[in-house]
Amino acid sequence: MSKQLYALGELPPLGEVPEKMHAWLIRPERFGKPTEAFQKEVVNTPSIADDEVLVLVMAAGINYNNVWAALGIPVNVIAARNKGGEPEDFHIGGSDASGIVYRVGKDVTHVKVGDEVVMHCGQWSRNCDWVKNGGDPMYSPSFRIWGYETNFGSFAQFTRVQGHQCMPKPKHMTWEESAAYTLVAATAWRMLHGWGASSIKKGDVALIWGGAGGLGSMAIQIAKAVGATSVAVVSGEDKYDYCMKLGAKGCINRNEFDHWGMLPHWKDNAGYAKWLKGVRAFGSKIWDILGERRAPNVVFEHPGETTIPTSIFVCETGGMVVVCAGTTGYNATVDLRYLWMRQKRLQGSHFANAVQSNEMNQLALRGQLDPCMSRAFSYEELPIAHQLMHDNKHPHGNMSVLISATGFGLGASGKAPVAMVHPTLPKGDVHTTPAPYPMSVPLPSIAEGEPITIADDGTRVRDLMHFGIISCSPDDNVGSVAKIMVDKEIHAVIVMDPDGKAIGVVSQTDMVLARQGRTAEQARTMLAREVMTPGCATCDADMLLSDAVSLLTARRMHRLVVTENDQPVGVISMTDVVRKIIGE
Ligand code: NAP
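^ thats the input. predicted complex w/ NAP below
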């Protein structure tokens, strides 16, 4: 008879899955700094579906995603999943891992219990029509990042993954090394190899931004493996050696230039000329390194706003700038003359599908991809690792944390097919940009409305609003909130915290969403905090009604909480507006 719970580091007999497991959990009530948001708990080991696999995690990779999951912004990942019908009120993060297969769903044929695996972080529904028809799952509306947008990631004794996520672990790597590379390397692989005729080829030149960073260090190695020449951009000469050991032909120190940021307007002759001088000097650095006047066929982009104008300018005619992030900002400006006259391509890219992840992993299995792990942490240090990332004090390179592995340096059972380089990053190197947003950012919907302007006849919000707030506490259950709605004949209830601050709204739509995948009884027992739409749009009682209408229509909202001296005093709704502008 198997034990109900195994101590961390004590491996259950192969294939024996205990009922409970140790895990690091994030819960909504402790959203905030990672050292407080992550807490150790014991939870039920998840069950698996026919296309899924349960893996005993030996080590897990650390990424920016779960710094943001801990903070609860820009998305409350738990509420988002609850609205989609997943009932757990906690989040187990972790989007990179190495481990041992412990249970296999009946439709999974390529792995078996006992296999040592690493996992890519793409999940999608196999029942999605797009996927069923052979479409790239990266375009499926069901695509999710495992361990960020899904629960039961790798920060636990067991993780639940879809079968296709499992790939062979390179035998020459330790548990912590093999947990460190998949997310960044697969992303870099799709960026460089996923775009048909524009993909990187033998003999090409690639310009790699952030060559010493997580993505950049992988991109240099992937470019080298295909026989391309890469030029890395870094922020200091102390990183040149690192990038060149990985395979870059040479490096550029971006701090020698100052033409960064959005493009000056093309009518601004002086400003544009100054920018042109800067970008030309940058371009000629590339020629110096290559020893010939060649432009990069592929530019590997992720800083975004500050560098895209340069990337587009220096890219070869017919070449591609491929971008997977906007770490410095999203408003990238493009001088279209260079784009259309020289027929360049600006290509967006996001993570990778299973085929691409496996192609990348072949490189790792062949010993041609160094995981570039800069630091590994113990299980106890998992929150600290995230806190360092949050505070921008973490080392460059990829980090991982031991889960079931009992010590550092374990798990390697073979020699690398080719000698790995293992370059080390300069000590004391500091991050200069704030922690980037998670790889999946919330997108404003196309359905966002245009603000509607109504004539201003001097009417103020206070002239029409309803004084008094019908509210509930975050811990009231949905059954009692529904009763308030029905009894008072209102469409929404404001959720107020114990300090009298409005923290969210439970609308009729939220109620309907809460019922998805649940019985009426299950929905009734949920809490207001779990179903509410977080945040409350407010306006001052003295705001002009015309301005309030613009606010409501631009954000496609039905009501605003009205404040006086920053205290909520009432509500103005679209019904009130209709009453005023059309009449009853
Ligand atoms: P990282 O390890 O922090 O490396 C980023 C590198 O960018 C740094 O090493 C830095 O190098 C460079 N950099 C910083 N500020 C810059 C600036 N103003 N101009 C030019 N370069 C600058 O991060 P990473 O893991 O490589 O990830 C990079 C971005 O990609 C993040 O935003 C991440 O969220 C995103 N990402 C997206 C996906 C996806 O699938 N969409 C997947 C993984 C990561 P120097 O200071 O040496 O120049």
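Residues 64, 183-184, 187, 209-210, 212-216, 234-235, 239, 254, 302-303, 306-307, 324-325, 327-328, 350-351, 396, 432-433, 436, 439 surround NAP (CB under 6 Å).
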